[in-house]
Amino acid sequence: MTAESDVTSANASIRASTVWTIVLGFAADPLMRWSWPDPGQYLRSMPQFINACGGGAFEHGTAYVTGESRAAALWLPPDVQQDEDALDAIMAMSLRPEITEDMAHLRQGMAEHHPPEPHWYLPLIAVDPNWVGQGLGTLLMKYALQRCDEQGIAAYLESSNPENIPFYQRHGFKVIGEIQHGSSPPLTPMLRTAY
């Protein structure tokens, strides 16, 4: 187990390795692999998707890594949004036609569940599968949630893997709905009020 002081902001020099850690961490994720079941397509599309979803975290110093980039979390500060235009382009370029409508409904559901008040948004958190079970995800979560509590601001995420819901619940997140359409796996929006 690493010390909490090992949580750092990912700067430009480690952005690529941070993104690849997340790619590895989501390699068996139900929603991501429904989106891109072909391994080659997944490896081509997922880095672009990560940058569109959480790239703003790098610019704001809120892309956190620990354990030599063995785990990473991309947090978007209040009023910082995902790059919807880039997401549209990635989806148009890479999704199978038969799931395009389902994905559009998922994205609409995500937009509807985002809290209207200012909040920290966690689009992506992942641990390299080789390092799962070492407490790295917990370190990253505690580090970021401390800031949320100090600022008195809520945190929000969508869990794309039902197996991860208990992890988020241990950190104070509560399920606030379910987003699912057609053949898609469920996406679970979760909210944590500041302590």
From TrEMBL:
Alphabetized GO MF terms: acyltransferase activity, transferring groups other than amino-acyl groups
N-acetyltransferase domain ranges (all copies): 109-195
KW Protease (keyword) present: no
A Pfam family: Acetyltransf_1
InterPro entries linked to this entry: Acyl_CoA_acyltransferase (IPR016181), GNAT_dom (IPR000182), Trichothecene_AcTrans (IPR052523)
CDD domains tied to this protein: NAT_SF (cd04301)
Alphabetic keyword roster: Transferase
PANTHER family linked: GNAT FAMILY ACETYLTRANSFERASE, N-ACETYLTRANSFERASE DOMAIN-CONTAINING PROTEIN
Descriptive protein name: Acetyltransferase
Species for this entry: Bradyrhizobium manausense
Classification lineage: Bacteria, Pseudomonadati, Pseudomonadota, Alphaproteobacteria, Hyphomicrobiales
